[in-house]
Fold each of these.
Amino acid sequence: MNKTTNKLINEKSPYLLQHAHNPVNWYSWNEEAFKQAKKKDRPVFLSIGYSTCHWCHVMARESFEDEEIAAIFNENFIPVKVDREERPDIDSIYMRVCQLMTGSGGWPLSIFMTPDKKPFYAATYIPKNSKAGMAGLLDLLPQIIEQWENNRNKTITIADQMTAALQDMEVKNPGKNLNENIFTKTYTELERYYDSTYGGFGHAPKFPTPHQLIFLLHYWHRYNKKNALKMVEKTLQSMRAGGIFDQIGYGFHRYSTDKKWLVPHFEKMLYDQALLINAYIDGFQATGNKLYAETAEDIITYVKRELLSAEGGFYSAEDADSEGVEGKFYLWNLEEIRKHFSPAETELIIEHYRLKADGNSIPHLDPVNLDNKNKEIESLRKRLFEIRERRVHPHKDDKILTDWNGLMLAALAQSGRILDNEEYIKLASAAANFIMEKLQPAAGQLLHRYRDGSSAIPGNLDDYSFFILGLIELYQSTFNSYYLDKALRFNQSLLKNFWNESNPGFFFTSKKREKLLSREMKIYDGAIPSGNSIAIWNIIRLAHLTGQIKLEKIAEKMTRTFSETIVNSPSSHCQFLSGFDALLGPFHDLILSGNKENTDFQKFLEVLNSNYLPNKVIIHRPQNIEDMQVKEMIEYLKDYGAIENRATVYVCRDYTCQLPTTDTRKFQELIQ
């Protein structure tokens, strides 16, 4: 039975609630914490993590649940806990601090700072006791206390210097215009890091980087560079065969600890599922390889089963640990398998899933022969899944985040359109409607987090740009102009509250948010693409969807602002460069006119969805144009009517249109 309860007990964050019974007297990030720090003249210990973080759990067990460590914190510091997924703005700033001070970063993130939030010491995981050259808290905390009490001037100097360094990193002067040469420079850099044996980029640990694969598909399409497509296919196939993919229950784990994609870090994140659905669907469109479509469908099967809430939104993540052991839920030993299967079935399972004779094994497949859908194997997989379901499941982080849900509803809408699956589109519509009902406090505004009936935290750049992305995809899959109208309204809010006029681009936080040490303009495409990278893609498509060409001027300004950063490390900005690819063109506006329920109209959609054409928008011109909710489109589309009441398509390239056609074969020729 828990003996103590601290202030975190009143929070909604699953991560903060995990620490609500620590003997450490945690505060959440709020004014009271920093007022107490000033009043008591104590440094602040800031601990940032998230509920499915393995090393966060380790540090909690070793130190935050330890009475000796808790007593030191409570008597000498003001301890503050932050969920990085609830407050990515705080996390991003202090992660940059950690990288500046130590050369690396990660979670849990541990920061010691002054009562005015200026950092003077940074680390990630800190053990209780010193070991292997790593200072433990029992040795470190007395040193920090001594420094604070007896060498305050030096501490303040370090804090001021770190704050100045952080602010110096802000984008101040736009660079030169980007040009087409950046594409080949990016491709060459990716080719240099490419692992031709196992796919993917770099060495262990190896992360799935969907936006790099999507950039390579753009590059292949623009220049017909066959090796770019080969790199994509090798990576998609190797990841699908590896232990990074949950072969029994589906869905992708966070990353591979080895270069072979075999041994994963077992947590599963909503955003990874969404972004990898996009990559596999694009791969399917580009190649026609059904394996990629099946993989996207398998990911969606996992997401529906484990991450879909009863209200229609999607939960955030599943933990790597169960029963305190990383990966325990996912591992198999032969003794357990023999208990449930006949000798012949056991041998087939061992052979197909390449299990080891001794110890715990991670199911994975032969990347050369990826036939995973024959009836016998599928029957065995389902039985393995049923056995696994009886185990203790990993913790599920059941908060619903607007930005990650935006990515998922975009992936579902795109998949439903390409795979002709109405269920996926309905799931996307339900998620969009959930966000607009629960996380839209006023017209055009968004909140960041929903959990347990409570919506809170003003939306950041990612919330707006990712949700706009989802709404655009949903419009193109339903032709319901309500979603496009909403996308335009949220985009107007983004421009009003996040735009940096002096250095064109979007701040991560609204001008209405609390002032932190730095107001960042993020551009790096890491595990998740940056909000600016998605925003430029949205703006270009909104320009083409509505005929508001002036929006492209905003995109052009953004490319100048970030050009120097991108040129210095192009492969770190692949999502932004996919947007720049669209800006340079050619870009296609495909206007389908007529009754969308007619057979001829549907045939046009079949042709369109079976062709990979990355830089395009699909626009529906209804028979009665006054039915549209998007006022900007009525004047634009009024002259694009159906011919003789038959489904008609207009193929426009860079705002210049070909003669319309009612013939699907002619349409196929035009888009090729």
Amino acid sequence: MRTEYCGKINEKYIGKNVEVVGWVHKCRDLGGVIFINLRDREGIVQIVVNPEDKEIFTIAEKVRSEYVLKITGLVRERPDGMQNATMTTGKIEIKAKFIEIISTSETLPFSLDDYVPVNEELRLQYRYLDLRRPEILSKLMFRSHLATALRTYLNDKGFLEVETPVLTKATPEGARDFLVPSRVQQGKFFALPQSPQLFKQLLMMSGVDLYYQIVKCFRDEDLRADRQPEFTQLDIETSFKDENDIQSIMEEMIREVFKKLLNVTLPKPFLKLPYAEAMSRFGCDKPDLRIPFELIELSDLVKNSEFKVFSENARDPEGRVAAICLPKGSELSRKQIDDYTKYVAIFGAKGLVTVKVNVLSKGLEGLQSSILKFLSEEVIQTILKRTHAQDGDMIFFCADKRKVVNESLGALRVKLAQDFNLFEGDWRPLWVVDFPMFEYGDGRWNALHHPFTAPKINDIKEMEKDPGNCISRAYDMILNGNEIGGGSIRINNMAMQKAVFTLLGISDKEAQEKFGFLLEAMKYGCPPHGGLAFGLDRLAMLMTNSESIRDVIAFPKTTTTHCPLTDAPSAVSKEQLDELHITEKS
């Protein structure tokens, strides 16, 4: 039905008759000559209909936006002064010889022009129309090319693409599982997978050796701009490779797709940053290295100060006093400072202390702050040097428990960079490594990653003696403040796996109920193995410079997990519930 896509009709077709199909993007009648911009997934081509071609012209007069047309015509060069350098087809046009109206269209609920703002709920309700917008459709096309590039790389490296079950067993994080009732086994439920984690480990025990899968996963949790209840990840697992081997292969893969799809050369190798250093310098484990300032440790300088908020937290083993220095921040108004103080309160901070650096050369007289009288001049000068403060800067101080300070200043650092566009460079990837194996909360030890992550030490007694200082063999790939991939070397020793379960408060009975099939498999020759998973949605979002992963998903849900297009989730009939042996809620 078509010679070529509209967006690919170019100069090589000049003098040839072509057939194109698509949607009417715009239709204009200029002095008796009708111009139709015909659009398909590859772009737009201009059709010219002259009034002397009366039969065709009569049809063209009926055409409206979003009609579906089939047009046959002669490709010719556009007249001088009429070429459009912003269009890939801007040097040519098609003189219509035949027009068929395949389908008409009612007036759309919103304009498809990219410069017309549209309510997101309305866009998602009519997502099939929203996807016609070239800027949205191009992101889906990019995502397709990204998936192809990732598959090509992994196939060339000898990885096997293996599908794992979608109907499976509830995970340790069962509260977040989407449950599927079994009709034939009354009272029992499948769970949709949050990850193929256990199956890919079993594949390593099966001898698959190098596995990958672009897989749909499900998690029933509160959503944000970069989260969806169903999401897609590139899942990878390898045997007989250590952290450095895996990181090297994955770095090469990401470098290759960035070069192929964006013509961007990423650094080689990626920076590796220990977790403890990331938290100290950036307040988070996914730092954005494009931001040119960091958290500065001040506890040692103020532990003997007269300002109790500083001294008490500086001397507390679990406390911290730190600061960030905002370039040219002295221009901030009192209201702006108050707004930032309210912002960090979200993370538990009781307040922010500020020092306005007016003129460094004037000493204390060149500074403006309510805390100066509590600090010695020597301490103040050392703070200025340590924060690299310059004339016109603003220093923000936070004193509290270490976790509160890290989260508050870490978030403030990012917000200040966003508010004042302080990012330097385009792409700053890194690995964060040496994560704690466990974290303590709610009266028990919890796995920071998951209970199958291997510790760096092989001595079970040493791990049990001091779980809080046990380091895991986990690693996350971070890009511009976003975790795009995370993984670890897995436990392949039965005794160590059981010891980790015990530390996590998982009894032998519970371990057998939830992971019995994995533990059984480990008895029969379990190779050393490890891997990771990349968030394909998030990676596509970053590479297309989108504000939300909803922009790179064909039919996404809203932040309330609602689908405006299909109105899912929805109620089901009593008959369906009865068949599933589920009692209808009164």
Amino acid sequence: MMPIAVVAAGAVSPLGSGEQATRVGAPGAAPVSTICDDAELARAGLRRPRGARVPAELLRAASDRSQAILEAAARQLVAELDAELPRWRERRLALAVGTSAGGMPSLERALAQRAHGGDVERDLARAALYDGPLAVLAALFGPEARSVNVLGACMASTFAIGLGCRWLNAGSAELVIAGGYDALSALLATGFEALGATTSALPQPFRAARDGMVLGEGAALLALVRPDEGLHATPKYGFVLGFGATSDATHVTAPDPEGRGLARAAQRALDDAALAPSAIELVSAHATSTRHNDASETRALASVFGAGLGSVVVHPFKGSIGHTLGAAGALESLAALDALRNGVLPAAHGAGALEPGFGARLLSENEAGAARHCLKLSAAFGGSNAALVLGAAAPPVNAAPRPRRRVVRRYDGPLVTSPDLELIARRTRLDEVRRARLERASALAITAVALAVEQLGPLPCETTGVVVGTAAASLEADELFDVRRRERHAAGVEPRRFPGTSPNLPAGACSIAFDLRGPSLAIGGGPEGAGEALAVAEELVAAGDADVIVVVSCNDVGPTTRALFRAAGYALPTDGARVLVLGAEA
């Protein structure tokens, strides 16, 4: 793709605000950790109440913490844009913002009110939806700007940055604001603890003795433009040079043990940048410090770099600021660009023996080094993967923009209002146990896709993706999990109910059911979800990120969704799932 310049940014993290939020430090410095005991999580009854929060003094008073965090990053970005591009408001603007949990702090309050029989007021209901916090961006950038809410869980902001680059390469926008955010909440922390994914100490990425992650919070927004748009020869932050996205199609909460999906995303990003793996000196790893993720990522790195892995430095930034979920990819990308600009090879937290087979360099303190390129890796619930190639400077010979392909509709299916388990058994590779564990939204989506497969025949596994557009997101599953949390407290929740609280789950479930390994993710979380998903799917096919995209409009509309949408003053989403299959014209 044509390199895309990062001309301004805004960020807040547990490390601070602005450039401090993602600073890796000088050569010779050890990594700084912001992880500590968290009083709010302790009051919620967690056995491992550890977290990393944005300092309160960096946030304006707001009823919703997610909104306050996102607004802090956005206001910094506006100030930088005013300095770097004084006439930026005259450009065609688009926003791609990723999140895992949206307005979860407000949703927790709304669910508590419902549990006690109270009515939810309009402002709280609007803030509680998965696109609720984006209201602060509409106030700063204007409601007329094109906007997509990426619900891709922990790879959401990495995907959002890649999507923004596609828009700019296509000429459909002149300035893109891309990134992500998430706030720490008791519901999320309870769920990850229930899955056995958290540690009571500090994360130790890629160490043999690691035992889990710690959640953090933050936001990062990047201003992206084409480098031929009258800018300085060297933008303030650097460049995005390549993007790739895939799905594992293996498991909804655990990565492919061999890391094949993540490796394919990395290779696609490298191909997009027209760079060989030997051009990468630094990897910004997903590195959650969980047993399965780090082992899978270790194998992915070995697959991508082969014999050259020993010269690559791996930076696991989550060890400093915790796992910031939807914000992680954007914050980690800014940290990587900081390292490239300042000639630093950044260090990692932890000590002791490394994960078996980990052949890269993991530093105990920062080293001086003139790295030119970084590979950023992200993975997520549902088996979604995304990768970026970053550079401090544009390559001397720029990769050409991808040729655009005409997109055609291959199938337009009926509305499915109830799951068909017999059809799912006949047309998918899900065994009886997996079929029985499907929550309603995923079962609806898979049924609708199965109807498409009955008519079209099997879809090409490697090059077919899934984009789920949703208004309701996972509100019904959220309340069901929260009811159990209140009834049984944090120690008594059922781990199997937590995955359903991710809006990304139906996309991953469809990928697994039909072995589809192209990009997979959810889009929306508000009234415009279906339209946003269709636009994203068309872009992925036109740009060559997939040959086929299965677009699923999917809403599980139950009492929680009805109550919140009515309180918000929004029209109720249509209950059920419907599929539209897009493909590249032959």
